[in-house]
Design a protein that fits this description.
- There is one protein chain.
- The chain is mainly alpha-helical and about 270 residues long.
- It has helices at about 15-25, 30-35, 45-60, 135-140, 165-185, 190-195, 220-225, 235-245, 255-270; strands spanning about 145-155, 160-165, 210.
- The relative contact order is 0.10.
Length: about 270
């Protein structure tokens, strides 16, 4: 049996409705629940739908739809022990032509224009070829056993000639070569680099007489060889000898001087 409740005349319709609801359901309804109703949210998407939507978004924004997805080419297989036949590097496609290998040429005796390979023999023991002397056998058979050369004193400036015995001086030098060949190491010894000069016959000064060296073509090579005064020549004069005897002429003076001594010895032994 419902009770007849008399509401005051000043209450509005909304207030009246709230009071009626409160009286009808006193435990379920409260002013807090009625004042702040919870909003209705959509249910969370399932795992299958979320994965499909994410893949669709990736395809739309990050992967171009116009180009097909092509897998990268496989890497070339390289064995751990390559054979000797395939050890040479392969040329790239489209590369330029290969550079031909150059072989080292032997030094050639190239004369300048107007120069002749032969000259008049400057001495009886010299030949008509530049920087070349006659052999010991040829000289002895021709009756040449004394070798002369012009010298000049550095103190009194007097010039005169010195004479060497051909056989005696050659055998002395040949014995020196035989005993010290292993110690040369393709370099002239100090005694050849700074030769001991003869004593002046006029003023009596020791170590003062030097050979007279004029033009390269007229150098008395055999006289310098027998007197062991080839070291008095300049480097350009020694290179001249090596050039016309087909010897290697680059390097320091001790090397070029050694080659000059070796070349003169071979010419006498030929």
């Amino acid at each position: 049996m419902t009770q007849n409740i008399i509401f005051p005349h000043y209450m509005e319709d909304t207030d009246l409705e709230l009071v009626r609801l409160k009286l009808a359901f006193p435990s379920e309804l409260s002013p807090a629940k009625l004042a702040a109703p919870t909003p209705l949210l959509p249910p969370p998407p399932s795992s299958s739908s979320s994965s499909s939507s994410s893949s669709f978004l990736l395809q739309q924004f990050f992967l171009p739809t116009s180009l097909p997805l092509v897998p990268p080419p496989p890497l070339p297989h390289s064995s751990s022990h390559p054979s000797t036949a395939n050890s040479s590097p392969t040329r790239r496609k489209g590369a330029g032509p290969t550079r031909p290998s150059r072989t080292r040429k032997l030094p050639m005796n190239i004369l300048r224009q107007g120069k002749s390979p032969t000259i008049p023999a400057p001495y009886p023991w010299a030949t008509t070829e530049r920087a070349k002397v006659r052999s010991l056998k040829d000289l002895l058979s021709g009756g040449i056993d004394k070798i002369k050369g012009d010298v000049q004193c550095k103190r009194c400036d007097r010039e005169y000639q010195i004479e060497y015995d051909l056989q005696e001086k050659f055998h002395e030098l040949d014995a020196f070569f035989t005993e010290n060949m292993d110690n040369f190491h393709d370099r002239a010894p100090p005694g050849w680099m700074s030769p001991k000069l003869p004593k002046c016959r006029i003023c009596g000064q020791n170590n003062c007489v030097k050979p007279v060296l004029d033009k390269k073509r007229s150098i008395n090579w055999l006289f310098l060889f027998l007197g062991q005064m080839v070291g008095c020549c300049k480097l350009a004069q020694l290179k001249y000898f090596c050039k016309h005897t087909k010897h290697h002429r680059t390097g320091a003076k001790d090397r070029v001087l050694f080659l000059t001594y070796v070349g003169l010895r071979k010419q006498l032994q030929s």
